[in-house]
């Protein structure tokens, strides 16, 4: 099989680009025919060899798609890839966009964090996991920066769990990490939570600025 890979995962925001990349990947690996198939699977009784080959390709295509899709798609992914599966994903994507219409903008995440609404933050990141490390404000602050300023320890803990060590070192436009903000407002437990994940945070150069 070809060694090319799909560069991103389907996360609810990127279906158009993802579907093109996934189709190219499946074509390159001789798997697209099973996704696009308009005929029934071979009968194991009538064509055992063809059926085994179909099962193998079906599993390979399903594995490829599962490895590049957010968990919200998994209920559908557990089913067979055959007969219009990608079309089914497209329809499901549209439904999920409608269900998440109130959550579809970054401003919704910003507002949920500032209001301390942890459930809404969870919901947003469930549908849009790639937003967890994005800069949400004109001042370059991420979800972790904003959550730190709310003083909500549980929210910060859950964000830290989702972020990589490198994500914790992101500076806003004031050259501050979230840890620096925590130190600035005296949020000791929040600071400890971040340092536990990445001890190198204390060595990141920056400056202490106000909360504005």
Provide a brief overview of the structure:
By secondary structure, the protein is mainly alpha-helical. The chain has helices at 15-28, 32-35, 48-66, 74-77, 85-99, 106-114, 118-127, 143-150, 153-162, 178-184, 188-197.
Give an overview in words:
The protein has 2 domains: 84 residues; 101 residues, Ankyrin repeat-containing domain (Serine Threonine Protein Phosphatase 5, Tetratricopeptide repeat, Alpha Horseshoe), CATH 1.25.40.20. About 3% of the residues have low confidence. It has 11 helices and no strands. With 212 residues, the protein is mostly helical. The protein starts with 14 loop residues before the first helix and ends in a 15-residue tail after the last helix. 52% of the residues lie in helices and 0% in strands. α8 runs antiparallel to α9 and α9 packs parallel to α11. InterPro entries: Ankyrin_rpt (IPR002110), Ankyrin_rpt-contain_sf (IPR036770), DUF4219 (IPR025314). This is DUF4219 domain-containing protein.
């Amino acid at each position: 099989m070809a060694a090319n890979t799909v560069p991103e995962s389907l996360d609810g925001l990127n279906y158009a680009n993802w579907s093109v990349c996934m189709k190219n990947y499946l074509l390159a690996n001789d798997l697209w025919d099973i996704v696009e198939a308009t005929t029934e699977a071979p009968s194991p009784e009538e064509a055992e060899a063809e059926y085994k080959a179909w099962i193998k390709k079906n599993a390979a295509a399903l594995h490829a798609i599962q490895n590049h899709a957010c968990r919200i798609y998994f209920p559908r992914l557990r089913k067979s890839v055959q007969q219009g599966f990608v079309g089914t994903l497209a329809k499901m994507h549209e439904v999920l966009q409608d269900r998440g219409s109130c959550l579809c903008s970054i401003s919704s995440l910003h507002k949920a964090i500032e209001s301390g609404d942890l459930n809404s933050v969870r919901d947003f990141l469930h549908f849009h996991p790639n937003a967890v490390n994005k800069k949400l404000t004109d001042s370059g602050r991420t979800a972790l920066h904003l959550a730190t300023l709310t003083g909500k320890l549980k929210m910060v803990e859950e964000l830290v769990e989702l972020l990589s060590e490198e994500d914790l070192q992101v500076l806003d436009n004031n050259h501050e990490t979230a840890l620096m903000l925590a130190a600035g407002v005296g949020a000791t437990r929040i600071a400890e939570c971040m340092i536990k994940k990445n001890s190198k945070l204390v060595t990141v150069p920056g400056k202490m600025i106000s909360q504005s």
